[in-house]
């Protein structure tokens, strides 16, 4: 003789599970809207006449290992570029010793601990804003993510600027920090 399980007895636990799952999903969606875990920065070409055309964007995302900077940039020469978070939320021109300082209003590298040292992006001996290099492929596009282990939260970078220099970074102050990285090439304000 076959036993029949009443449908009502099975449907009550399934309904309770479905309702609790829907409530959890709704509360998670609301929480993610209230506290976004990423932000996007528009990057513009820095020139002696001010900011030029938009080169693309960089999305900054929180991860368990640090902030991840995911570029979508184009029209760059292939190779590695110095990449940093700068102090001020500005990308405009400044004047230095009577000369135009391209994107000079961005200030120096983010350095809240006042180390006054340019250093590797993975140690605690230098600027907080020292990032790993930005890689540009043979077609002139930068799309590979960059992990910044010293930076943990979006609030670490919000209210500052993101800078791409025209050369590679030697992560040293010798011979001269600016000579090793090249001119400021692209800039965006992190809001």
UniProtKB/TrEMBL annotation:
The enzyme's E.C. designation: 1.15.1.1
Superoxide dismutase copper/zinc binding domain segment(s): 56-190
Enzyme superclass (EC): oxidoreductase
Keyword Oxidoreductase: yes
Signal sequence range: 1-25
Domain of life per record: Bacteria
Protein's name in the database: Superoxide dismutase, Cu-Zn family
Native source organism of the sequence: Bartonella choladocola
